[in-house]
What does this fold into?
Amino acid sequence: MKFLLYLKRGLILLAVLVLFLLVALFVTTRGPHRGTSIDITFPEPGKWGQVNQLEVGVGVRDITPQIELYDSWVDQDGDGAFDPDIDQYEDKNGNGTFDLIWLAGFGNKRAAQGIHDPLWARAIAFKNNGAIIVLVSIDSIGITHDRYLDIRERLVEEAPHITHVSFAATHTHNAPDTIGLWSYKEFIGRKFDDGYIAYLQDQIFESILESVSQLVPANTVLAEAEVPMENFTHDSRPPVVVDKKLPVALFRNQKTGETIATLSSWGMHPEGFGSDFPLISSDFVHYYREAMESGLDGKGGFKGFGGKAIYFTGPVGGLMTQLNINISDRFGEVNGPGSKSKAQGENLAILAAEALNASQKNGVEDMSFQGIAFTAKTIFIPIGWPLKVAVALGLVHPGMYGLPFNTEVKSEINAIRIGDLEIITSPGEVFPEIVDGGIESPEGADIITEPVEVPPLRSQMEGAINMNFNLGMDEIGYIIPISQWDREPPYTYSYREPPYGEIYIGDPSASPKIHRESLLLLERLHDTLSSAGNRR
It folds into this structure.
């Protein structure tokens, strides 16, 4: 009888435990903003407002962590990683634990020891034909969709006159962890900084409001530079396909002639300082923006354009890096005292400046059409192991959809037109093959198929210049062509182990879906432009 009693009690306890786990899992898989979605084209075809002179404004906010709020530490063994058993830290707030700024990328024990250059949220606003559209570039490893929706929700309440805001991260590897993958430990014992997230969101919000408050009629110069692979890019994963396009726009105050902003995009990981660099920085993006604003003296120098330089990261999957190459600076020094990141940023700015100056010399002073339009759509992206575990626990990209048969996360794609400038956003790090072509079906791939993500996205864009913003509205990892997906042996291109990339998204069907939805959005955008009589 006692056995039956103990068995009954054990079964009841087990049932309660299972129920508790199910309730906990239900809560963690729900995620925030579950009922929020978007599926819009503006203006609707045939419903364009009057197209006047384009207005442009810029807003900038410092998003560098307030370092005085954190503990400091000494790297006793010089390995660039914080180990509480070896390294020393100053417990400034006396709470008995280490409160450090955890840098994103490379490893999960990289704690900042200072600031090399400030991080920024840089917003550029456009107004015409009854709409205000704002693009925001953020010096961050990446920000998940739910946190952008926090900001959008606040804007609806406090700034309803803004029609649409699209966000993207520059993907610098020397900014705080804003995702949750690099904060000391992945799961138990992790020290993710929710306080910084709140500060970051506030600063982004303020940059948006400022950009709209600064709107003035503007003249525009459009240009595009060709970026050579040599001395600029290394593709660390075959096939070798890199981003060779540097589209750039210059906006000037129509009344004063002063520069409001330059806007540009190119695909490269901002990680030139490497894994051992202990300071906060936007990497080569910092040097690029500084040069575009203030100019360069000496060899290859040019007069700065003034205003604010807004930079968005282009297609970086594949993987675009400068870690495995030498980069000569404009004086011919290789990885000299100014660092690889400085050389790359300044070299890139020289290309952009040459292209803009050539356009101005040729009399290209304005866009023939200055209307603005956009399409935006919520999409659900399939994910696999191990990402689905972190999502299910609410640790990374909270909110799981498609259950019980599928595991998906909610994300978003935007297609935007600013006059003759066209933009498509990608919610992660897209392989350049998907944007500009060159997808292969290599021997050893897990899925035997001809290339699926065709035609290339940029070939279907119709602007005078066309930009692809990576980490746009989200960061879901690498967007890998399905015919190049490779987790199981035999491996492609003679790899002896799985290539780097698949582990972050975990599902090969993500890329075809993102590509398909991107093409549909571009088609919708072009349809509304046609209705206004302004399709190129």
About this structure: The mean pLDDT is 94. The first strand starts at residue 39 and ends at 42. The first helix runs from residue 2 to 30.
